[in-house]
Amino acid sequence: MACTSTFRLAFLLGLFFASIAFVHPSPHFYESFNESWEDRWILSEKDGYEGKWKHAFSDGHEDYGLVVTEKARKYAIAVELPEPIELTKRDIVLQYDVRLQNGLECGGAYIKFLRPQESGWIPKQFDNESPYSIMFGPDKCGATNKVHFIFNHKHPKTQKYIEHHLRYPPSPVNDKNSHVYTAVIYSNNTLKMLVDGEEKKTADLLSDDFEPAVLPPKTIPDPEDKKPEDWDERAKIPDPDAKKPDDWDEDAPMDIEDTEAEKPEGWLDDEAEEIDNPEALKPEDWDEEEDGEWEAPKIPNPKCEEAPGCGKWTRPTKRNPAYKGKWYPSMIDNPNYKGIWKPQQIPNPDYFELEYPNLEPVSVIGIEIWTMQEGILFDNILITEDEKEAEQYRQQTWKVKFEAEKEKQKVEESTEVTKPGLLSGLKGKLFELLRSAADAQLLSSYRPTLIEAIEKGEANPNVTLGILVTVVLFFLTVFYKLLCGGKRPPTPTVPVEIAKKEDISTPDDTITETKEEPVGGTVENTNENENENETSGEIEKEGDESSGTRHRRTRRET
Fold it and tell me: What CA–CA distance (Å, rounded) separates 407 from 412?
């Protein structure tokens, strides 16, 4: 019986010590913000940090967080840790949740892990100059869109602190849901960064994964070394024995007149390309003292339309077969080439070796940011040595909120698709407007096609958006052509009563128009474009007549 009791006691003691061995150590620091923060967190009293913090629920959850409440403000707040936390020769996990409830266009959402106050600062004077060991978290503005990881390292020789920035950091998640950011610093100097529990980046604290690298190079260029004067860095040089050929004419032109060209038969040498419009009449109210000497507007010479050309004929040019351009000697290998000169390397006087980085302990956690958006919420700030414990916190806090937010988002999106309210009414009004536009006189030739497309969009919701975009783009294209013009209509004959010049120009101003044949289209389409441009020109002319404004006229009236 005694043996049985002894065995039972030993078994229970074994279970007890085994359970102790498998219990995760308590975190060094955890802030859930479930209780008010005023008795623990210290607001900065430094000038310029006027942003107001709020203890509030995360949108849609009964879970408190610390919230930024105002736009375009600087914020600074800090909390002292029970005792400083060493960051070297051990595993350390830094983790927190952040939710951009109103998005983030420009601002930070990072956290600073600050050095002890013995380094010469106090939380009430917390600002961007306060000494931190690590800065970690999202930052977005302009070209910047990254999850920072920056650590300050004390140079063992100069004793100065240098910021080392992670190169090629991961990007933050820029939506309005809750997200958790985790940085794990291992005892072997490896950094692992996670976003929402998913690994995004690994780096070595002592390597060139950081800019600048912590460990300096063993050698450096000798600052006293100078390149010798006779050092030749030219790999190729002009051949000194090369001679320009006797028949090389550097003055020969690139193009010459084509002496074999002949004037086309039927060329009208004595006819001008443009002539005065014989039907134009000088306006009765033309005042030569005010308007200058009246000249009839020019029109294309009808005789030139059927001829190969008018005016003085000149021979075209062609490529000169004798053209060679400027002569240069050929290049040969430089017999005196010594390569690109570099100063010799010398031992780096600032070189040092480290097994671990010199990271100062953390005694304060602070949030010091500037942002253009309100509604940034911080929650579940954690410092622990146990990566599994950090994962448990993610699952029990962030994960629950994130999944609820995603589910809510799915419901809202599905409701928006099927909801007949504002969106459907808006589409109905838009289709009605497009029907009215299709009845316009200018679009009469396109009306059957437009109506068919509009009816398809109304009948089939799956293609409604595509139909709307297509029809709207069509309208914009047609009106752009009407306003800005495709092919210009022929110059009309101007009656005496409205032959008024609409701009101020010199008497010799003329407008040369080039006729173009339609490319990739039919004559019928070209005529339709011309009709549209003529209609547009008539509308514009009527507006000009109704304005009743007298403009300065020139000698030529069109």
Answer: 9
